[in-house]
Amino acid sequence: MARLTEAALDTAELAGKHLVLGLSGGIACYKIAELTRLLVKAGATVQIVMTEAATQFITPVTMQALSGRPVYTSQWDARIANNMAHIDLSREADAIVIAPASTDFIAKLAHGNCDDLLSTLCVARDCPLLVVPAMNRQMWQNPATQRNVAQLRADGVQVLGPDSGAQACGEVGDGRMLEPSATFEAICAFFQPKILQGRRVLITAGPTFEPLDPVRGITNRSSGKMGFALARAAAQAGADVHLVAGPVALETPWGVYREDVQTAQQMHDAVLHATADTDIFIAVAAVADWRVDHASEHKIKKTADHAMPTFTFIENPDILATVARLPNPPYCVGFAAESGNLEVHGEEKRARKNVPLLIGNLGPLTFGLDDNEVVLFEASGITRLPRADKKLLARLLIAEIAKRAPRGGSLLS
Ligand code: CTP
Predict the structure, then answer these.
(1) Strand pairing report for 371-372 and 388-389
(2) Could you tell me which residues belong to the region Phosphopantothenoylcysteine decarboxylase (predicted)?
């Protein structure tokens, strides 16, 4: 199988998807330039349709340049051969996304009004509809708006956001449009099969940091990319995801609850605190095996006689083995990075940690890289997956885990 790089997966993520991206009037129209760029970069074809009000905030010329397709703004546009733009534009679409969705446009949708091209397209569609609200906080909180949004949800429309925070009008509250990257992530998630719907997944990721003194410590080269990619893939598959992360410089994946920790002991405590609410536990973190017995309270200084500092190490708790030993454990998945003889060490480690599934990395050199090659160890034998970009691999692994994890959560239930 061909090797997929990060760039290749980015290109492939929405490949083959055709979206109608409808802009209604609002200052958040500026965010749609970036959203369009992200969608096009991910391989989607994007057909822009704008209301008259939207053209006051961003020009059709800009949107045409970014989408690479003609932009439609009027239901009387004669460019479509049979003059049926309101029907034809959505017929090939996998979804219509309204972003930004203004208060007025949401009201129109809730009542099935169609007095312009975009609202008519929505009423005449035969594909899913996603709306991304953007408005002042009072307009969002208005009972009429809340009724209209509830009606849209009841009609099966996906409502993405809104966000909370500073608004263009200077006020602060709910109603901001999601950022372009968050909207993009929500659209990608919408297209993924919900194979983990209703399941609660707990993931550890990244390295741990064990202090020697206030400025030094022991850590390792884990970047956290694999664990974060698994958290993203699990959330896209519909799971409720709790990510316990060691010190890494990565963005929290869309829809994931993240808890940051530093040391192995903190990671252990955070995980043990969360396991009762967990169906599937995936231990991806590269946990430090040892810590210094008493880290120095003050910075350790060099001495005049050049004496080397000495440290006493004690073993850190094995988080995965501890969870797997619980009386009613979640379905436990371990990872193993070995520098050699993976087939022997992988199965030995799986049996020793008493977990049903262990994923073996082919070599520690995968640390920090964007792709990876893994082997699945189970009591029944070994399965090899092809080398792939970590995001794509994460999706393949989540599919393998979803097939194996018993419904109802615990192995014993
Ligand atoms: N793990 C853990 N807690 C630890 C050590 C490891 O939860 N204190 C988990 C890792 O997250 C991984 C699996 O156990 O899922 C295997 O980790 P690895 O570092 O490969 O194995 P170790 O148990 O540390 O064994 P060794 O370093 O001797 O190979």
Answers:
(1) antiparallel
(2) 1-200
| Residue range of the domain that includes 120 | 16-191
- From the CA of 289, give the closest atom in ligand 1: 8
- Give the range among 26-30, 170-174, 220-224, 400-404 with minimum mean pLDDT: 170-174
- The distance between the two most distant Cα atoms of the chain, rounded to a whole number of Å, is 91
Residues serving a catalytic function are 169
Q: What is the pTM of this model?
A: 0.89
Say which amino acid occupies 79. Answer: R
pLDDT digits (tens, 9 = 90+) for 297-307: 999 999 989 89
Q: In a mutational test of the pocket of ligand 1, which residue from 209, 320, 367 has the highest number of ligand atoms less than 8 Å from its CB?
A: 320
For residue 302, being part of any structural domain is answered with no
- Say how far apart CA 232 and CA 243 lie, in whole Å: 10
282 Cα nearest atom in ligand 1: 15
* 299 marked ligand binding residue: yes
CATH code of 382's domain: 3.40.50.10300
The CATH number linked to 101 is 3.40.50.1950
Q: What is the pLDDT of residue 91?
A: 83
Same domain assignment for residues 212 and 255 = yes
Same domain as 53, residue 181: yes
- Same-domain check for residues 157 and 278: no
- Write phi, then psi, for 284 (nearest 5 degrees): -105, -20
